[in-house]
Design a protein that fits this description.
heterodimer; A: alpha+beta; 11-stranded mixed β-sheet; 9-stranded mixed β-sheet; elongated; B: alpha/beta; Rossmann fold; 4-stranded antiparallel β-sheet; 7 helices; 32% helix; globular
Chain lengths: 810, 234
């Protein structure tokens, strides 16, 4: 590539600002989008985790399988987790380090504002395995190990800045959590990215020693504790399969030694598996990543199709100068070289634009996907991705030039030099024009329809009736801020008093001791006494006010009475889904006796409507038992147009007991919005993709049609001159393009069918006959775009005296 | 008795740009009768092609009136103008303006396809064959234009101009893109057509061919310089 040619290319492009702007903006934006998604793919799939010997880090999964070998859950049982932790530590030749952690939120009672912070109770190995950079102090050491009960706290950089105003002597401060004062021993550096093993987007602000965790399930062998996460570092040369087998056997034996009295779980099996940390991050997010990648590639393809057309138009405008160069002795290779250098210059400019836009793109991804995708905080430009994007840009440059060159007919160009120039415009080969239009239609239909399916599905999910009313409901939780607990019996009466006090507040209409209806936590083994058949419905404990507060309907029978709750009457409510499993008719299930984990039987007294939880496609079987009419969690139904403030509730709690600390006060509707956020983000992304696709394809189709019409203007002029009317010409152009349109529609339909049959397992939930109107609408919209794209450029020829079309200059 | 076929009264054409106003034609008036063979000549830029465009309803005049067979066609809509062109006017262009993708047959048949009479295929075939025979190219009916010589292409263009049996042929520099031998051949065809009653108005800058016309109009700077044999419309 000589300097002379580069200079010539620069001079040639210098006077074509619109062309340059068209190419650089279109390719810059689409390559920028591709660059961002490729960077995300690189970070998720290839980039090593920022921890020492990260390839040996594994998440420990603890799974319970019922007697039919169906997985009931993948959640640790609290005492089993501690036992397994101890087992791992016995033999360092298999597992060199293990960290056990409990994720929760805690109230800092030493701070008057009583802020609630994301808290991780963990063992020192958590820090040893991740080696977080520290802004101040140190992290946990041996003294904070299991059963050492040494208080201490590590706080995040953000918490230091926000709650302690970045004060220098932070290491002299302490935080009081649950009545225990923990001296702050360290502050993590802002550059620390912790592995999001519990919840995407969750960043811990406070680390405390494991011993102080306040889990409700510390003694329970039958209830899983979903807040526990364990990860470990395998010793070098450890065989994962053998290690899994070994610890599965140990965990299984230990489990059965603890639950031997429980007939229902007698044949259950425990398995422990070790999943490499990287795979944990990829597993559930591969689909979203592939979706983003497909969208970005689709956009680049549409843009490439548009730019091909621009390049062909540009080459056509150079015909005369190319002819002169050829007359002067330039050979085809030299002509190609000159065009290629122009294309390379433009694509390199586009790449620079893409690189400049990348930071903006990363920020958008961070904002949109922090809670959905792992490691988005680590997004930054990487050499590998820059090389890939540059190579793609060079390949595109080659492709554009290759196609443009196909339009050059050397002989006719040289002949054109000797003629007057009138009426000598050559058309781009029909095949190129045909396939350009066709490709636009294919990419557009596939992208628009796929995004449309996703949007329709999400709209359906979001608009499904929940089966309860979240209006004016506030979720409230409190804890007893001490480890010196005297047992719940000591506080139960105070909780009842609290409920009474809350009912007296003018803002509150009713109070129920019940957890949010949004979570299904525990599945129990339930046996129908009559048939001895086993079921695995989700379990919830509620009081007599719950159904009234959440406005969940009773379909048959009755709800719980005050006496049922106070006397702990063995009665149960079941939902429609469970009722359908038990009997064909809801009426038949009233009076059914159910045994839960081999307990005394409960009698079904009512069937209530299903709860359709946000983000869940299926409605599982659920059964409801009475709680004790007291708890640390409540649902508050507010009166119309009333609000509650935090200070008001904290004051009420303190009036009852100074050790009661408010841990949660959220509107139920806000919680639903948070749960739905993932859907909303994906829907917004899909919508943006649809709009971008439609805009790009509209521009592309118009460009192709406009150019092909412009170079057919003599033909159009001639036809009009010999008597064709506007509608004759319009029909002709439509007819000429109908083949490309039909071919595009057929190929895109085939592609969608192939996609459907190739990924039918994943797509079954999304595809149904109801999508036919959406599909037809997509075809109609793209067809309309194509037809408009054909018609609009024609107007200048059919709505003006025909001489304008026949003249060389317009 | 002579019948007025085409009458122009005080036709002017002004081209306007932001900076410039060009008077391409100034108060042009004349009449062409049935059976005439008129040549329009003059130096480059004198308005020949503009005049022919207005005569052929390809363009509109700025002022003046224009009649074809006594009907005022000055203010027709674009579609009405197309209909008149199709029925009354046959065009022959300097660069032939044949459509490369169509065969000779289809090129010639084109005006019939746009005709409001919608003749059937049989009639189209009959008429196209007749016209191609008239120009001596019936043996090339299935060829594509690029398989023909320049002279042959121009003769196909003549056949196309004749196929709808127009009242007048408007011919723009018919030999401009041809060698002298092919040019002569084309001029012979035109002459024979005129002899058989076809009215022809031809723009040419070649004095030899201009002399072949029965009536000569000479233009200079948008005005008729010499029209001794042209009846000036009153």
């Amino acid at each position: 590539m000589s300097l002379y040619l580069i200079k010539q290319a620069y001079l040639s492009l210098k006077n074509k600002p619109v062309f340059i702007l068209g190419v650089v903006s279109t390719m810059g934006i689409t390559l920028g989008a591709l660059l961002c998604v490729l960077t995300l793919a690189y970070v998720m799939l290839l980039k090593p985790l920022p921890y020492p010997e990260q390839e040996r880090l594994v998440k420990v999964i603890y799974s319970q399988y019922d007697d039919q070998l169906m997985a009931t859950n993948n959640t640790f049982i609290h005492p089993a987790a501690i036992e397994l932790y101890n087992e791992f530590n016995k033999n360092k030749s298999i597992i060199s380090h293990t960290a056990i952690s409990f994720y929760t939120e805690e109230i800092i009672t030493s701070d008057q504002r009583q802020p609630k912070v994301n808290t991780l109770y963990t063992t020192p190995e958590w820090f040893n395995l991740l080696t977080p950079p520290m802004a101040k102090g140190r992290y946990f050491s041996q003294e904070h190990s299991l059963n050492h009960y040494t208080p201490g706290a590590v706080i995040s950089f953000l918490m230091w800045k926000n709650l302690f105003n970045g004060q220098d002597n932070i290491l002299n401060e302490s935080v009081i959590i649950n009545g225990v004062s923990h001296p702050i021993i360290g502050v993590t550096a802002p550059s620390f990215f912790e592995p999001q093993l519990f919840q995407e987007g969750r960043a811990n602000q406070l680390w405390l020693p494991w011993d102080y965790n306040n889990s409700e399930y510390q003694q329970y062998w039958l209830l899983p504790d979903k807040n526990i996460v364990m990860f470990a570092k395998l010793a070098p040369k450890t065989n994962i399969k053998q290690a899994e087998q070994l610890y599965s056997n140990i965990a299984n034996d230990y489990y059965h030694s603890q639950v031997s009295g429980q007939s229902d779980v007698k044949h259950w099996t425990i398995k422990t598996t070790f999943t490499p940390l990287k795979d944990v991050f990829i597993k559930d997010n591969y689909y979203v990543l592939m979706l983003l990648l497909a969208g970005a590639i689709g956009l680049v393809l549409i843009a490439a199709s548009n730019i091909t057309n621009l390049f062909i138009g540009r080459t056509a405008s150079l015909h005369r100068s190319i002819a002169i160069s050829m007359a002067m002795g330039a050979n085809k290779r030299q002509i190609n070289e000159a065009l290629f250098i122009e294309a390379v210059l433009l694509l390199l400019l586009s790449t620079i634009a893409a690189l400049s836009l990348s930071e903006l793109g990363f920020e958008v991804l961070r904002l949109a996907f922090t809670d959905q995708l792992p490691r988005v905080q680590e997004l930054s430009l990487h050499a590998l991705v820059i090389i890939i994007i540059t190579l793609i840009a060079l390949c595109l440059a080659y492709f554009f030039v290759k196609l443009s060159i196909k339009t050059i007919n050397a002989t006719s160009l040289l002949q054109a030099l000797t003629s007057s120039g009138k009426g000598n415009a050559k058309q781009i080969p029909r095949a190129i024009s045909f396939w350009l239009m066709c490709s636009q239609i294919i990419f557009s239909v596939v992208l628009v329809f796929s995004s449309g399916v996703l949007i329709k599905d999400i709209v359906q999910q979001l608009s499904k009736p929940l089966g309860f009313s979240a209006k004016n409901i506030v979720e409230m939780e409190f804890s007893v801020a001490t480890l010196e607990q005297l047992g719940w019996e000591e506080y139960a009466d105070k909780a009842k008093e609290l409920a009474q006090q809350l009912r007296l507040l003018p803002e509150i209409a009713e109070v129920s001791f019940a957890r949010t209806p949004l979570n299904d936590n525990f599945k129990f083994s339930v046996t129908d006494i009559k048939t001895s058949k086993k079921y695995y419905p989700f379990h919830r404990n509620v009081d007599q006010h719950y159904l009234e507060v959440v406005e969940q309907r009773i379909l048959i029978g009755t709800g719980f009475s005050e006496q049922d709750v106070s006397d702990q009457t063995p009665v149960a409510l079941i939902n429609e889904a469970f009722s359908q499993q038990l009997a064909l008719n809801h009426l038949d299930v009233i009076g059914h006796k159910l045994s839960v984990d081999g307990s005394l039987p409960f009698t079904v007294i009512g069937v209530i409507s299903n709860l359709q939880l946000p983000t869940k496609r299926e409605v599982p079987a659920r059964f409801y038992l009475t709680n004790y009419g007291t708890a640390t969690y409540l649902l508050l139904k507010l009166k119309e147009n009333m609000t509650l403030n935090r200070a008001q509730i904290i004051e009420t709690l303190n009036d009852i007991d100074s050790q009661f600390a408010l841990t949660k006060l959220d509107k139920l509707s806000d919680s639903i919005n948070v749960v739905n956020m993932k859907y909303v983000v994906v829907m917004t992304t899909a919508l943006i993709l649809v709009i971008l696709t439609l805009v790009l394809s509209a521009i592309g189709l118009y460009g192709i049609s406009s150019y092909s019409t412009r170079i057919r203007r003599f033909e159009i002029g001639t036809r009009i001159a010999i008597g064709a009317k506007g509608k004759d010409i319009t029909n002709m152009i439509f007819k000429d393009n109908i083949a490309a349109l039909s071919m595009g529609l057929i190929i895109s339909t085939v592609i969608l069918l192939v996609l459907y049959f190739s990924f039918s397992d994943n797509l079954t939930a999304y595809i149904s006959i109801e999508l036919l109107p959406l599909f037809l609408m997509t075809l109609a919209v793209i067809s309309l775009f194509s037809m408009l794209a054909c018609y609009l450029p024609l107007r200048q020829y059919i709505n003006q005296p025909v001489i304008h079309a026949l003249k060389g200059n317009e | 008795m002579t019948t007025a076929l085409l009458t122009m009264k005080k036709i002017s054409k002004v081209f306007e740009t932001e900076e410039l106003e060009t008077h391409a034609l100034k108060d042009i008036s004349f009449t062409i009768n049935k059976g005439d063979y008129v040549s329009i000549s003059g130096p480059s830029g004198c308005g020949k092609s503009t005049l022919l465009s207005i005569m052929g309803l390809l363009d509109v005049s700025t002022t003046g009136e224009y009649f074809i067979e006594g009907v005022n066609v000055t203010d027709l809509t674009l579609d009405q103008a197309a209909e008149v062109r199709n029925a009354k006017i046959g065009f022959i262009f300097q660069s032939f303006n044949l459509i490369d993708e169509l065969s000779v047959f289809d090129n010639v048949a084109l005006p019939l396809r746009y005709s409001s009479e919608k003749p059937n295929s049989k009639k189209i075939k009959q008429r196209v064959t007749q016209c191609l025979e008239q120009v001596g190219l019936s043996h090339r009916i299935a060829h594509k234009p690029n398989q023909l010589s320049g002279g042959q292409q121009q003769r196909v263009a003549i056949a196309r101009a004749l196929v709808a049996e127009p009242a007048i042929l408007l011919v723009d520099e018919p030999t401009g893109n041809l060698d002298s031998k092919s040019g002569d051949l084309v001029m012979d065809v035109l002459e024979k057509l005129n002899e058989s009653g076809t009215t022809i108005c031809m723009v040419t800058h070649d004095p030899r061919y201009a002399d072949m016309a029965k009536t000569k109009i000479q233009l200079l700077d948008g005005t008729i310089l010499q029209a001794p044999l042209v009846k000036i419309a009153s």
